[in-house]
Amino acid sequence: MAATAPLDDPRFGLARTARLPGPLRLDGGAFLAPVEIAYETYGTLAADGGNAILVCHALTGDQHLASTHPRTGKPGWWTRMVGPGRPIDPARDFVICANVLGSCMGSSGPASIDPTTGAPYAMRFPVITLRDMVRAQAMLVDHLGIGRLRAVVGGSMGGMQVLEWAATFPDRVASAVVIASAPRHSAQNIAFHEVGRQAIMADPSWRGGNYYEHDDPPAAGLAVARMAAHITYLSEAGLTEKFGRRLQKREAKSFGFDADFQVESYLRHQGISFVDRFDANSYLYITRAMDYFDLAEEHGGLLANAFKGTKTRFCVVSFDTDWLYPTSESRAIVHALNAAGAQVSFVELSSPFGHDSFLLESPALEAVIDGFLKAGQT
User: Fold this and answer.
1) Per-residue model confidence as pLDDT tens digits over 212-246
2) Which of 60, 102, 132, 326 is the most buried (most CB within 10 A)?
């Protein structure tokens, strides 16, 4: 068993960047080289490499899984699930979390320097897919000397990456945990993303994506995109309970308008705080990659084909108030896994928090993941 890595141990949240020579061939036909992947590790890799768990983050997440975020100063985004005594425990597991390809926290993306021009790629960065992100993660796993992952775990877009891992590298994934996710985007999902993209591109500061040298990013557009998306992460019941139609003091202002309702102020805060840690072009690229994702289409139009012959164990979890990726999407995944003869457990959990439930306090989710991962130990 790996040695314990407490919170004050340097092995807990060890931040690194791997510069991989590549080239990485992308689904769009382009080649990317070199490929930089920013990541954090927690715990110690066992001698046989058998205790490695890869955690995949969602759209606006990053590699700061359970360590203090360097830009916001806030705790990592999944400290409820990862840490001493948690379901994913660095005392037992070697945990990896990598910033996805196309993002803005150190991995290759639109803000990276194009070696052929010496300037940021901006919109010259090649189009990417979720499968490209997973291939880049596989390059990182190879770099770390890990042949087979004990588990791949993720929620939302992270869950899509888990599905892609299981389909693309089935022999490298012992267990897969897919939380609050879907095998492809609906027209409604794509529509919400397009509203956000148009908000960014309508901001005069976007400049066709060439805003890096001006030190004037399209903050207003990105903030509106975040506000629109954040609504989809919540539930109507949760918003009503938290805010209702309560008014607030008139002096609170943002973008030149009074925020009369508490819910308005909340959304504006979400938007403004987001622009301090995220890149607008990355938002364009990653949302588009999510919209392109269609696991069935990648496998002849039948979702079950993606898992044909798999030996991977699956755990699929949904939440009853999640209307972004409702339980029907999880059931579609489960039905495909059943058709492929895969080992799969499924549970719908009750929560008032909508899609974001997997990021918030959920003893039931912790119990499910803890039990599933422990059941897969050899």
Assistant:
1) 999 899 999 999 999 999 999 999 999 999 899 99
2) 102
